[in-house]
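Kindly review this record before class:
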Amino acid sequence: MSDFDSLLAEADTEVMAAFGTPATYTPSGGVAAPCSAILDRDIQALSPDGMVEGRQIHISCNSSLQPGRGGVFVMDGVSYVVHDILEDDGFNARLLVAKQ
């Protein structure tokens, strides 16, 4: 890992510690693991022409969890199933989820 990658990983850890919520992530067919995640509600989904199509729920987490479709996060007693991986830069992943 380069010095830059190390610094970025450290910064990501600090962001999750400051803004994350204790959670549990269970991959599809896997075993639950404790983690920290950031829940964003009421994200506006835009169509290609810029019109609001609806509202979404996103979860951001550390990529080391290897989140995938069908995985489930539990935060504050509420379950969220992963529908899509919107971004994953190798450090953090941003996921499209829905309440289960």
In short: The two ends are 37 Å apart (CA to CA). Strands lie at 21-26, 33-46, 52-62, 72-75, 78-88, 92-99.
